[in-house]
Design brief:
Helix content: 25-40%
CATH superfamily: FAD/NAD(P)-binding domain
Number of helices: 8
Strand content: 15-25%
CATH class: Alpha Beta
CATH architecture: 3-Layer(bba) Sandwich
Distance between the termini: 29 Å
Number of strands: 20
Mean pLDDT: 94
Largest sheet: 8 strands, mixed
Length: 377
């Protein structure tokens, strides 16, 4: 069976769902394709759930611009979709000798990005705008809103081929389903390079960067802020943060790998995370985690935030190498992708008001759902 649509969006992670919603709100007929049984069960559902302000992002870069734009777009979406959010702010304290230099640099960086922070007399830095959400509910809320605006969601659709059909693209699923569209937006996360190659584009490569997390019962008094370490070159380090369901999570690690299907938590991760986390929250020293999970971030080799029309195939727009800030930047990425789709000749109208929709929040904590799903998978 073949279905026609203006745009096929491959990947129903948070970026794909946001993009499908943005396109549907502008009048495009959209088919959203997801290889898993539900949206948000891969990288989007296995992150921290933190909505970053961008205080520490490099000024002027595309990633930073999209993070800052998302902050302008987010609150109306959270309200309309009834999505959970914990507006707790963050605290960054110097621990090692010389950390105060990095903290002051971060404060100056925040000022360049227009983010409100406070540098205290003890050289700690508070970032009141940082917040936490349920990443699965956030992703599925966007997917449901996209459907409310006319998008079609097809799950268990694994892309097997892509071909040029004289002015349009045909995406074929492994189950012999076919989608014919004027433009294809590749939001396939870990598989974005594989999807691109189906369209003749081998210009980039994605590898998995594993981030392992430990989940704890809230020790003593409830944690009221995100606790941030002073970042080092190449990683933001292990942080400690509250969840919307009242637990505390510590992580992530950062382990570059090759296996895009290895969602396991390494035996040594527990001790590695605990040793770093207890520096920020001493109550975690010796605490037993109630769960653990690993996320695989789709990192690009030598590239970050690769967003643009493919030079190899007309009509193909790649949205790839979106690493740990994908949840935060998703709304800005989606808006940016709409402009790229319009450049491919898809007629987009003015953005329609977002239709309110109930939040898809499970009674079971999101971190438990993804941990159990990945154990079974």
């Amino acid at each position: 069976m073949e279905v026609d649509s203006d745009v096929a969006v491959i990947g129903a992670g948070v970026v794909g769902c946001a993009t499908a919603l943005a396109l549907a709100r502008r009048g495009a007929s959209v088919t959203l394709l997801e290889a898993e049984t539900e949206p948000g069960l891969a990288a989007s559902g296995t992150n921290s759930g933190i909505l970053h302000t961008g205080f520490d992002s490099h000024p002027g870069e595309l990633e930073t611009r999209l993070i800052l734009r998302s902050a302008q777009l987010r609150d109306p979406v959270l309200e309309a979709l009834g999505l959970p959010v914990l507006r707790c702010g963050a605290l960054l304290r110097p621990i090692a000798a010389g950390d105060w230099v990095s903290v002051r640099e971060l404060a100056a960086n925040a000022e360049r990005n227009g983010i409100a922070v406070e540098l205290r007399d003890d050289e700690s830095l508070t970032v009141p705008g940082e917040s936490v959400t349920d990443p699965i509910a956030y992703t599925r809320g966007l997917a449901a809103a996209a459907q409310n605006h006319g998008a079609e969601l097809r799950t268990s659709f694994r892309v097997g081929a892509m071909s040029d059909q004289g002015g349009s693209l045909r995406v074929e699923g492994e189950g012999n389903e076919r989608i014919r569209s004027h433009a294809v937006v590749n939001c396939a996360g870990l598989r974005a390079d594989e999807v691109a190659r189906m369209g003749g584009d081998d210009s980039f490569e994605i590898y998995p960067r594993k981030g392992e997390f430990m989940v704890y019962e809230a020790p003593g008094e409830a944690l009221e802020q995100i606790l941030l370490p002073v970042p080092s070159e190449g990683t933001k380090g292990v942080l400690v943060f509250p969840t919307v369901d009242g637990h505390v999570i510590a992580g992530p690690t950062a382990v570059d790998g090759e296996d895009k299907d290895d969602w396991t938590v390494r035996p040594q991760a527990r001790e590695l995370v605990a040793s770093k986390a207890s520096e920020l929250l001493p109550d975690l020293l010796g605490a037993e985690p109630v769960a653990s999970y690993a996320g695989l971030r789709p990192a690009g080799r030598g590239v970050n935030y690769l967003i643009g029309a493919s030079k190899a195939h007309p009509g193909l727009v790649n949205v790839a190498a979106i690493r740990s800030t994908g949840l935060t930047a998703s709304l800005g990425i989606a808006e940016h992708a709409c402009g790229l789709v319009a450049e491919q000749g898809v007629q987009l109208g003015p953005e329609q008001p977002l239709e309110p929709a109930p939040a898809s929040v499970s009674e079971e904590p999101w971190w438990k759902r993804v941990a159990e799903y990945r154990e079974v998978a």
